[in-house]
Amino acid sequence: MRHVAIVGSGPAGYYTAEACQKQFGDQVRVDIIDRLPVPYGLIRTGVAPDHQSIKGVSRRYEATALSDNVRFVGNVTVGIDVTIAELVGLYDAVVLATGAPADRPLGIPGDDLPGVVGSAAFVGWYNGHPDFAGLAPVLSGPGAVIVGAGNVALDVARVLAKTGAEFTGSDIVGHALDSLGAASHENITILARRGPHQIAMTPKELGELGHLERAIPHVDPADLPPEAEDAALEPGLRKSVTHLRNFATLDAADKPITIAFDFYAMPVAVEGDGKVERVIVERTAIDAEGRANGTGETYVIPAALVVSCIGYRTPPIDGVPYDAKLGRFANDEGRISPGLYAVGWARRGPTGTIGTNRPDGFMIAEQIAVDTPDDYGKQGRAGLDLLLRDRNVDVVTFRDWQKIEAAEIAAARDGSPREKFTSIDAMLAARGN
Q1: CATH superfamily placement of domain 2-101+314-431
Q2: % of the chain with per-residue pLDDT over 90
Q3: 153-186: per-residue pLDDT in tens?
Q4: Rounded to an integer, what distance in angstroms lies between the CA atom of residue 154 and that of residue 309?
Q5: Can you count the helices (H) and strands (E) in the chain?
Q6: Distances, alpha carbon 4 to alpha carbons 70, 129, 216, 380, in Å
Q7: Which residues on neighbouring strands pair with residue 116, listed in sequence order?
Q8: Rounded distance, CA 264 to CA 219, Å?
Q9: Cα 333 off chain centre by
Q10: What b-and-e string marks burial along 38-58, b requiring 16 or more CB atoms within 10 Å of the CB?
């Protein structure tokens, strides 16, 4: 019997558990450990609340979680309640599937002013993550600036621009819905260091901006390359650029909110008297290697809110080798040290889609099969249970989570699938006895 502990219950964690089941059959016991009392990680608190079809993948993870040889061990913080060294001593393999939940800093003067937030925090706020429920972003003032050229930037812009009615069917949390309903930003600017041909925005997400009730996307035609150059792009990017070309033909005066794409632009400072009031932007030019370099030409964008969507980092864990430059655990194709592995964003950095984690999980399961004998004689979950009991850790099971979920569904407003609890205490209370 192999005993496997997976730290993190997001897509990478559950895909790895599924892969271990397929690799070892009934000769494996998998414990999925998470510091929150609720599972699914990025699916619950990272995917946009109005993208319910994507969140539906959690049903696949639920099937894995309800298997006889997989269990959820929630409300357990690795590094506090149990150490990595202790887990390695208890399990044949320990897999870090913690994702990359920490924002990369902007790294410019003024990036610590009130009103500057990272996308992980902002997305966590409107998705009900307990760490960010009290964020209170500035939703009034001269405008909002979003830094980044990927889908997260589009999610933030779309959420800022939508009316309350447009969130029908979503699971955006009540405190965010109320605050956004009172928002008064008329100008939302998306800053991209490079040009339309270098974006990481997908066609579906871009297309959504063209169907908002009170907001209209705008692209300066001067920022668009000659249309003939689109032919060299891969098909998905070509479709995205087609959306941008369409946006350049729209009349920004048709609706009260403008979502302006500002290409060849990078923020160099955030300024204000004790809070964000403006962003200093430098015009860029792309060199032969495709890098964006400042030209020295600067201008000012008035703003009360700056949301940085420039990437994520995996937080370090004591005792685990860490690659600070890449913002992930140091590993060789998933192997960190004997008995310790990384998977998903914790392994490769914040790249790829949710589905990219599935082959990642199967690769790690195969490595575990090569690296470990059929039976190390380790204690596995029995040893973990004893340790956590001795430390009075209040463990949340998957059955407990189902009670929490049922309470969230029962509390849902009309047209919403659930109203998420936004504090750990409330989650634990909903679990009952």
Answers
A1: NAD(P)-binding Rossmann-like Domain (3.40.50.720)
A2: 90
A3: 999 999 999 999 999 999 999 999 999 988 888 8
A4: 9
A5: 15, 19
A6: 10, 27, 50, 7
A7: 306
A8: 12
A9: 22
A10: bbbbbbbbbbbbbbeeebebb
**DSSP calls for 355-394:** GGHHHHHHHHHHHHHHHS-S-----THHHHHHHHHHTT--
**What is the topology classification, in CATH, of domain 103-308?**
FAD/NAD(P)-binding domain (3.50.50)
Strand, coil or helix: what is 177? helix
- CA distances, 81 to each of 78, 121, 342, 389, 390 (Å): 6, 25, 20, 10, 11
Give all strands (DSSP E) within 144-262, no chain letters.
Answer: 144-147, 187-191, 215-219, 257-262
Helix, strand and coil in the chain, % to nearest 5: 35, 20, 40
Indicate the burial class of 391 (C-beta count within 10 angstroms; 0-12, 13-18, 19 or more). Answer: exposed
Q: Domain residue spans in the chain? A: 2-101+314-431, 103-308
Is the CB of residue 58 less than 8 Å from the CB of residue 354?
no
- Are 217 and 210 in contact by the 8 Å Cβ rule? The answer is yes
**At residue 288, what is the residue type?**
A
CB 315 within 8 A of CB 102: yes
Q: How far is CA 177 from CA 38, 49, 224, 296, in A?
A: 22, 11, 35, 40
- From CA 66, how far away is CA 246, in angstroms rounded? 47
| 258: amino acid identity, one letter | T
Tokens 């891969």 sit at which residue?
234
Q: What is the pTM of this model?
A: 0.94
* 319-360 residue pLDDT tens: 899 999 999 999 999 999 999 999 999 999 988 888 889 999
Contact 135, 103 (CB under 8 A): no
336-342-343 Cα angle (round to 5): 150
**Radius of gyration from C-alpha coordinates of the chain:** 23
